[in-house]
Amino acid sequence: MTVRQRWAGAKWGRRAAGAMLAAATVAVAWPASLHGQASRTVQDGVFTEAQAARGQAIYAKQCASCHGADLKGAQAPPLVGDPFLAGRGAQPLASLASKIRNTMPADAQGQLTAAQTVDLLSHLLKAGGFPAGRTELVSDEKALAAIGWPQRPAARAATSGTTQVKTYPPLGNMAQLMRGIFFPNSNLIFTVQTRDPAEPVKAATGDTPATGFSFVDWGAGIYGGWQLVDNAAIALADASPLMLVPGTRCENGRLAPVTDADWIKFTEDLIAVSRKTFQASQARSQDAVSEATGDLSDACAACHRAYRDVQPIGATPDPNDPSNKASRCRPRR
Which of 74, 247, 250, 281 could form a disulfide with 329 if both were Cys (CB 3.0 to 4.6 A apart)? Predict the structure, then answer.
């Protein structure tokens, strides 16, 4: 299936499943729609001492072996301190609650109840130095979405004038970057429209090959289905800034317009939707990820229309015509 066909599928899925996905998209929309709307923060006493004590017992049984008895990390990352808080950003508490309930413990995902999740969350908050209050933290998603994290001071700039960050010139051109990272990872995410990552991969029988995510069958037995989707969304989000590296050239040899306002905007849009897709994947919801593919499709198409499938003056571009490559990466007129 081509990228255009994937895009068409994404948009179709968006229209056909709109009503069914209304609830699922709440989880996806946290970072965008609720940023700045939190009525209080975790510094306002959002849990009780008794709740944190219950959560401590759950943590000792379910989490300590990976995150450490002191929550400072072991096999898994720390759950207190700057490394932990740095990852919270503008996300509401609902985002962390969803991650805990749907993806933890790593070897028994989805087994914690809603009540156990907020108790465990209360223990994390107390261990992180946030104060207890008189009212227990509730598991209602709306209530959790209204609780944010305190503002953190900006990271200090390096004071040493001798410290230099080593940079490397791009090895490939923009088309190779797209084909190596963005095309396969986007298609993996689009596959969620038709295949639930939670379903086990069917074993091969006789002449029938195993079925799985098409281009990564080799890895389906190493990483779980949802982990593949997580990784794909992260790859898109964290690789997108590579499209802004000065000196990157397009397939036709022209320098990519990395300083063009639209190019920068489209790159930032892709980063935002990739992060949104990751949040949907963390909710372990096939419907939510399928809905997010519509935005991913739109983000890719917007940039392609402007910089890839550029219409020559007086002609209609043919994507299969090699000569169309000559028009690529020109700033919008």
Answer: 250
Beta-bridge mates of residue 28: none
Residue 327 has what pLDDT? Answer: 76
- Res. 262 pLDDT band, cuts 50 70 90: very high
Which domains can be identified in the chain, with CATH numbers? 3-16+168-204+211-327 (no CATH), 40-145 (1.10.760.10)
Measuring CA to CA, how many Å separate 36 from each of 32, 97, 148? 9, 19, 9
pTM, 2 dp:
0.73
Nearest Cα to Cα of residue 308 among 4, 6, 9, 10: 4
Which tokens go with 183? 């095309």
Angle value at C-alpha 3, between 199 and 257, nearest 5 degrees: 125
Is residue 117 within 8 A of residue 100, CB to CB? The reply is yes
Residues 6+ apart with CB under 8 A from 304: none
Element (H, E) at 270: helix 261-282
For 167, 168, 225, 233, the CA distances from 161, given in Å and listed in that order, are 17, 20, 46, 36
